[in-house]
Design a protein that fits this description.
The chain is of the alpha/beta class and about 190 residues long. It is built from 6 helices and 8 strands; from the N terminus they run ααββαββααββαββ. The protein has 2 domains: about 35-105, Histidine-containing Protein, Chain: A; about 110-185, Histidine-containing Protein, Chain: A, CATH 3.30.1340.30. Strands 1, 2, 3 and 4 form a 4-stranded mixed β-sheet that branches. The longest helix has 15 residues, at about 110-125. The chain is globular, with a radius of gyration of 21 Å.
């Protein structure tokens, strides 16, 4: 067994307490360039963070939001009802948010749509120039399938990637239509 100095152990045990405020919640120190917690910019950043951190949020879901003062309207489509309820709960917990209008659509259960989702994923993210998007924590190309109709949401780095995703999505069998709503914004 290795020898670990007691002072090091005590310091490591006390380290988590350094960020706790008097209320018992973690208090992140505000830097000069950081927006105040009640500002629109801070709420926008926190809402986005809460949504992308949802455990069941996937490439087959599309979550968007609108912020008007202290009201957040959630829109988009999800494959699991739990993602809709978790999104609302997470956004309600954001400091400064008073009201959440949850308009997220839960997509119908369909084995055929599930098959199309898997085929679209393989076709898009398995393509050479689009593979790099698949290794991100939250892949930026979201594949929404409803009753055989495919919608691509999200962002890519350039027009060539947008066109490639569209061609790949249209090449999947049993798809009635493809709507390409991908934005070209550097893939952020």
């Amino acid at each position: 067994m290795r020898f670990i100095p007691k002072a090091l152990i005590a310091g490591l045990l006390l380290l988590p307490l350094a960020g706790i405020s008097a209320t018992g919640a973690f208090a992140a120190p505000r830097q000069n360039n950081q927006a105040p917690r009640d500002s629109q910019a801070w709420i926008t950043k926190e809402v986005r963070h809460q949504l992308v951190m949802l455990p069941w949020y996937s490439v087959f879901d599309n979550l968007e939001y609108k912020i008007e003062g202290n009201k957040v309207t959630l829109i988009g489509q999800v494959t699991k009802p739990v993602v809709k309820s978790d999104a609302e709960s997470a956004v309600k917990s954001v400091e400064g948010v008073q009201f959440v209008d949850n308009q997220i659509e839960v997509l119908p259960l369909s084995p055929m749509d599930d098959q199309i989702r898997r085929a679209e994923y393989r076709s898009i993210y398995g393509f050479g120039s689009l593979e790099l998007y698949s290794v991100r924590a939250v892949p930026p190309i979201h594949i929404i399938v409803k009753n055989g109709h495919v919608t691509l949401e999200g962002s890519v780095a350039n027009e060539a990637d947008k066109d490639a995703a569209n061609v790949r999505a249209n090449g999947v069998p049993n798809v009635f239509s493809v709507t390409n709503n991908l934005r070209v914004d550097g893939g952020k």
